[in-house]
Design brief:
Layout lengths: L2 E6 L17 E2 L2 E2 H10 L4 E7 L5 H10 L5 E3 L7 H11 L5 E4 L9 H14 L1 E7 L4 E5 L2 E6 L5 E10 H14 L6 H7 L5 E4 L10 H13 L5
Parallel strand pairs: 1-4, 1-6, 4-5, 7-11
Antiparallel strand pairs: 2-3, 6-10, 7-10, 8-9
Helix pairs in contact: 3-5, 5-6
The structure holds cytidine-5'-monophosphate (C5P).
């Protein structure tokens, strides 16, 4: 059941329009990054945290980590141009472990129950990712005209965490780098190797803090969970 987690935290968060790394914005008076880190700090099965960071933000992040008593961080390598590069720089620094999770630092509402399901499935099958079923009617559109209504039953909205056997993800990342393939998630890299990737039904609460509206939703989720009065 043990695992280590890679948290890419080196984005610029342009869509948030905060003029700073969105992970430093506060939810319930605590940076989003700390909310995410605390989930893994408090999960007894997590044995190590790897954070990809911007070099100019490393000192500040190290200070935050100390201030909030996060003790599981094993390394803070430089992030890259794209999220995939940030993840890869962590994978390259890690020692071999059985299971590695990749989780957006910008998704602070992940639960230990979902993490445990993902780790279990990855131990059995090699690769398992979090997702939720599409709620709305889904249509393919070209030049403003509907081309097709897609069967919703087969459509999932994909989130993180994404859990893998370490050697499988490391190989997928290396191959992608070699051929210059850029995916929008880690599962795409593993799918390219022809390896099946399983889905674990997660939660609509597992939002990625992307725009200002997400901060309002985030406060509501915390309130629902009883963290705010
Ligand atoms: O921009 P977006 O919210 O999709 O990024 C998802 C996560 O990946 C964030 O936690 C962000 O900090 C991280 N990221 C990164 N390196 C990049 C781009 C994004 O670590 N080059």
């Amino acid at each position: 059941m043990q695992y280590e987690v890679v948290l890419p935290a080196a984005g610029s968060g342009k869509r948030m329009g905060a003029g700073q790394n969105k992970l430093f914005l506060l939810l319930e008076n605590k940076p989003i990054l700390i909310h995410t880190l605390e989930v893994f700090q408090n999960d007894e099965y997590c044995t190590g945290i790897w954070l990809a960071v911007k070099p100019e933000e490393r000192e500040f992040i190290e200070k935050l980590i100390g201030q909030y008593g996060i003790t599981k961080v094993k390394g803070l390598p430089d992030g890259g141009e794209e999220r995939q590069h940030s993840v890869h720089s962590c994978i390259k620094e890690m020692e071999q472990v059985e299971i590695v999770l990749v989780h957006d630092a910008a998704r602070p509402f992940i639960t230990r129950e979902i993490i445990a399901s993902l780790v279990n499935r990855a131990m059995e099958s090699g690769a398992a990712i979090a997702g939720v079923k599409a709620k709305d009617t889904m249509k393919k559109v070209r030049d403003g005209i509907i081309v097709e209504t897609v069967d919703r039953e087969s459509l999932w909205m994909i989130q993180t965490p994404q859990a893998f056997r370490f050697d499988l993800l490391a190989e997928a990342e290396d191959v992608a780098e070699k051929v210059g393939f850029l995916g929008t998630d880690e599962a795409m890299l593993v799918e390219r190797l022809g390896h099946p990737v399983h889905i674990v039904e997660a939660s609509y609460d597992n939002l990625k803090m992307t725009t200002k509206e997400d901060l309002v939703l985030g406060e509501a989720i915390l309130r629902k969970r009883g963290f705010l009065v």
